[in-house]
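FORM 7B - TANDEM STRUCTURE REPORT

SECTION 1: FIRST PROTEIN
SEQUENCE AND TOKENS:
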Amino acid sequence: MDDQARPDQSLEDDPRGQSGQSGHASRLLLDTIIPYQINRLSHRMNRYLDRELRSHGLSISIWRVMAVLDHAGAATVNDLAHYAMIEQSTLSRMLQRMKSEGLVENARSSSDGRARTISMTQAGRSRYETVRDITMKHTQRIVDGFSRAERAQLMGFIRRMQKNVETPERDGGKA
């Protein structure tokens, strides 16, 4: 195994001093791409959280829907899709399952008779409250060792990145 990287080494620690086909010592390109690193971090955290939520009969997607409903009280399918980041067709099927499990109910919107609002049932609220501490523990884990000021600064950076992504490009309005 002298000539090969150990499984615990990163690709940037190539023992031959090379990376890629160029033969030059350098970092793996993906290690320098911030969106990739954010996605990688999110994937790992979601994997751990999903394992714990599944032991309570929930998934991360269902938990996100419940978190939106906990905050809003009730929401339209469009609002849930937007805030929970779930495609509307997938969300509709998920809401059907949640309704059959007694976690949510729907009603006609008082402001728009064509729209339906979704809200949590008492059973849904109870299940959500059971896992809230679990999700908060995972949230805290990601910033363990950060000071209050560092957490605030990180949230500021994240908000700026979100704004950058949501703002159309300045060169001709292309997105």
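SECTION 2: SECOND PROTEIN
SEQUENCE AND TOKENS:
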Amino acid sequence: MNKSQPFVFAILVFFVTNRLPDFTQAREIKLPNPLILVHPHTMIPLPSRNVLGGPLKPCSLKPLTGFFRNGHCDTCAEDHGCHTVCVEVTDAFLASNFAAGNDLITPRPEFNFPGLQPGDRWCLCASRWLEAVEAGEPSPVILASTHERTLELVPLAVLQQHATS
């Protein structure tokens, strides 16, 4: 083991476990070369395609939206809420969500959430949007900015009925 390997090993152990290794009983170990680790919490985005089959367009950069906070309604396997529907929020939509316990108005800086105002565009959970449709309060959808994963929960025809540009 060369002089830099214990340091690199300690960093890798900390990255994976969030704890530093105990070197009080250290012994030399053989590490694979090259050492390639994938952090267990790495989120790999699904392809950026919209519900129309084209490239996913930005939803909003101000406020910065998306599960990855990249301005797009990109998603991944770890996005259990399926934040894939790009909507332009309305007063009625914000009020009905607030009444249902989904406060989209109050800023939450700890989650990098600015709070929404009517006219803002936001990547919304597909199931929440569908609930709003069933309640008669859906916000308009921007199809070119809505991720194709939405189609697992919402039929394209329903999205098209509420589409805006």
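SECTION 3: OBSERVATIONS ON SECOND PROTEIN
The CA atoms of residues 77 and 88 lie 25 Å apart.
Residues 4-18, 28-40 have pLDDT under 50 and may be disordered.

SECTION 4: SIGNATURE
Preparer initials: ____
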